[in-house]
Amino acid sequence: MTSAEEMAESLDQTLASAPASVQAGGDAWIFGYGSLMWNPALHVVEHQRATLHGYHRRFCLWTPAGRGTPQHPGLVLGLDRGGSCRGVAFRIAGPQVREELAILWRREMVSDGYLPRWLPVRTPDQSIPALAFVMNQLCPRYAGKLSVAETAKIIAKATGDLGSNTEYLCSTLAHLDALGITDRSLHAVRQCLPDSSSAR
């Protein structure tokens, strides 16, 4: 687990590497690709569909809590290297950037699974630098490139305090579909689930 001091230091370092406009007190953009898309839990002034190149959405991070247990860990999404990812970009007003990012850090940076990076994303109108949480491939919980069948088998068995891993997958797909975003790899995992599991 990441300590409060470590999270504060990480946030300081990320803000120090932010685009000049953010460092000057301007607005900041955040890229959401999983549950952040429909449950940002942040005060935002705008959101737009956006595409990030160089990373793709994948079930690649083991979770022994939340959607799994230490005995049967589940999998959560990460941004792994290669390809592209369609998601949602959220704009935070300048005066609230540090406060809102501190909330985001307590949600996303509680362990060493993710690395915060400022990356260019493309919205329908422009290319903007946005903060994205990409997969830390050096993290011991990095699952690597599991096959579709392996991923589905793990998800079907895992359940934690926040519910089943299957519910997480199906909710992600439902919200992606509602946003008009098709993720064929996640649909392939969904189709490999046993009927009894996918019905939960």
Features:
200 residues; alpha+beta; 5-stranded mixed barrel; 32% strand
Question: Could you describe the 3D structure shown?
Answer:
- The chain is α+β, with helices and mostly antiparallel strands and 200 residues long.
- It is 33% helix and 32% strand.
- It contains seven helices and seven strands.
- The chain has helices spanning 4-16, 20-23, 97-108, 148-157, 165-178, 184-192, 195-198; strands at residues 28-32, 46-63, 74-92, 114-122, 127-135, 159-160, 163-164.
- A five-stranded mixed β-barrel has the order 1-3-2-4-5.
- Helix 1 (4-16) packs across helix 3 (97-108).
- It is globular and about 50 Å long.
Question: Biggest sheet, open or closed, and with what strands and sense?
Answer: 5 strands, mixed, barrel
Could you name the ranges where pLDDT drops below 50 across 5 or more consecutive residues? 196-200
**Mean of the pLDDT scores?**
94
Find the structural class using helix and strand composition: alpha+beta
Strand content: 25-35%
- Molecular shape: globular
In the sheet with the most strands, the strands line up as 1-3-2-4-5
Count of DSSP strands: 7
Q: Determine the number of helices (DSSP H or I, runs of at least 4 residues).
A: 7
Helix content: 25-40%
Backbone CA Rg: 17 Å
SSE pattern: HHEEEHEEHEEHHH
* Cα separation of the termini: 31 Å
